[in-house]
Amino acid sequence: MKICIVIPLFFLYSLFLWGTQVAHGELSKSEMSRDEAVKLFADANEKYLQAIKLIASKNLPEADHKLKEATEQYETILTGGFKNGHIYYNLGNTYYRRGELGKAIVNYRRAARFIPRSVDLSANLRLAKDSTEDKELSTEIPAIVKRIFFWLFFLNQNELSLVAISLYVLLMVVLFFSNVCKYGGIKRIFIGISSVLFIVVVSLGLKIYLERGVNHGVIIASKCEVRYGPGEEYEPKFEIHNGAECVIEDEKNDWYRVYVKVGVKLGAGSEARAGEKTGNEVRSGWLQKKYVDTI
Amino acid sequence: MRRYKFYCCILISVVIVFGYVGKLCAQDIRLTATVDQNILTLGDQLRLTLTIHGTQDTAPPSFPVIEGFTLLYGPSISAQTRNVNGVVSVSKGYTYVLQPAAKGKFTIGPSTVEFEGKMYSSQPVTVEVVDKSRSSDPQAPDLEKLVFVELSVDKNEAYVNEQIILSFKFYFQKGLPVSDINYSEPTTKSFMEEKLGDQRQYEEIREGVLYNVLELRTALFPMMSGELAISSAKLKCNLIVSQRRGRNTSSDSYFSDAFFDDFFGREQKRYPIERATNAIALSIKPLPEEGKPKDFKGAVGSFDMEVSTKTQRLKVGDPITLSMSVYGEGNIQTIQEPALVINKEDDFKVYPAESTTQITNREELLRGRKVFSKVIEPLKPDLKFTPAIVFSFFDPRAGQYKTITKEPIPITIEAGEQELPIQLTLSHDKPALAKRQVQLLMEDILPPMTNLASLRNQGNPVYRNPFVMGCLLIPAVAVIASFMLTRHKERLTSDVGYARTRRAHAVAKKRLNGALSVLHQHRQGEFYSCLSKAISDYLADKFNIPPASATEDKVIVLLQQRGVKDDIVEEVSRSLTDFDRRRFSKDSGTWDEMEHSLKRAEELITKMERQLS
Fold this sequence. Notes:
By secondary structure, chain A is of the alpha+beta class. Chain A has ten helices and seven strands.
């Protein structure tokens, strides 16, 4: 009877991992060694710190030059296949210093996928979001959801995978001992562990879907017109600005179909008071790909 | 006291009656002439109704001059009073039934009526009398005339984003019961659309026939220039027509009056009707580039603007909320906020505006109001005015751009209070005068992460690690192996047949070893007995039969049933016969021959094990 549970469980789990591996097809083997990456990273950090000193001494052109160099070095590490949350975070900082809020937010968001517990990252992301013109354009998950499903936001994808694998191994050990020594209470332990494993595997699938299945984008141009259709011939519908976050639904040639959440006031115009935000409205439209960077 | 009450009642009644009559007198007086059909055959009857609208207190209208018809009877008089949303309308109708006397086209001349010294006349009505009905079914009504639809726009040429009113009208002859109305809207691709009001219902006279009209109106806003099309609208409904119950013979003419119809009842027939309008082509012009203001953001229509602020006296850094209300005709939803004219960038800090939209009128045209609440912060104490506000739009009626400029609003700004410095330690010299708060001097991003030890490639998924793959495979294999082992042990103890089968080979080997020791003791007869027993007991174990019943004939049959190769079966038969013969014979062979027999028995059991396992 137990074999009927173990074998499907094992195959389902293997299938799931195979699926995730397919989803990660783009993650090719790193072309850059760790030593090279560390060297470049240290060098870029040094240039960033020099730029901060130059900004303090009001030498802005030289500071900008240093920041540009630091940006290029961080980008080189990342394009070399060496991905790390700290690199994305530092890259976000350099873009923020250079006034490119959209690119800063993109890189902070990418960093959050690797280092979700970083307090510094949360603070910088909040500051960058507060500096954007469209503050009300928000794709933030409500705090209550974050508290209830804390493990989803506390662990990154690899950490969650490790938890799942550990639970799987534990489950197998329990099954092994239940075969070897017939102990009555082991059934309860088996049910408990398999329930937790189920929740963790579902959470992992959900995390992968949220990070890979849904395409999030950030506006990287100073101003961007969202049109009624995929072409210049369509009239503009509304405008969004640098740093605004959107969800990409579809694409056609050089255009993305996106939707954004816009804060709106409800009620009659005469009754509404300034600053009284009472609801959200989802607006969709088409914008050119060159204005968006995907997370 | 009772007398006073009586007078009061009389007074109130008089006021009500005179008020009502006065209200009626205020209505427009008009006289209309309508017919129930304008194409009929010689055998048909024509109902002509002269209706006086606005009063019931007139003499009957004059009977018009009618050629080609004779008056059968009339007039039958009907008075109607309607109260719709407090608006009272009265009318009085005089209906005549006419019989056509000849074929041809005839005009029913105008009828006249006099009311309070004024003459009112009706419009002439043209009626055609034909030889016979065009329809194959003489009782079937001419549905094309009874019910039709129209789709129209108020203009065929417009600018991008200009308001166009699309009107769909459903006409059905007055008095016709229509049911199950199903309306399919036209496709308005490349337009933004907004429904205008509720469905309208009124009466209209077309070619002398009175129709009920249902009208649906939509405001359209073209989103692009060029030749745009609005597809046809469709309507399906059922027309319920009362007909006499199959009494078409001439003898029935005696019974063909209203009395017998009422007595026998009339048959109600449903005619499913489907109508489609024509498609509409529109020419949409782009907005002219000439004279386009710099602050123009695409508003098209006729708009005005109001600007207000709640506070005019404030301190440096205090926010002012400018309420900019743009209202008028046009696509109010898509209007962008008016522009602020700020002379120096460091005069004011400007925050993005929030807006609310309200549609104020949907009856004739789409009118609305959009209020933008914009917060600005004066950064200098010497500022005297808010920025001027400019809103530009394109007026399609005038064919030109217009700009509304609202002058700056005067404000008085006082210098802000001096902020207390941050105090990290308590000073004993000065008493605490006020509640002090730590102020955030500057908000900046946190420094970069420089920990090189933690720098590792996080891009590789953890399950690509061979150790992890091993963690997945090895426990599963171990669990399956432990399960199979446990099951095997359980069967060995509980299933005798299984246990004998599994142990048969090992037992046979032991017996052959026993035969070898017997051989060394030179007990030839016993040696062959051991060999024979080893083979027959091995087969008895394999087939789970008692050793005593494992005779040569039986084991041969069982081996053949299990599909063992014929040469092995023959060898088993030959060996068993040979061993039995030598067992009881004096000639038991040489030492070499006995060793050979032992080897043959061993090989035979191994071959059978391969075949039977």
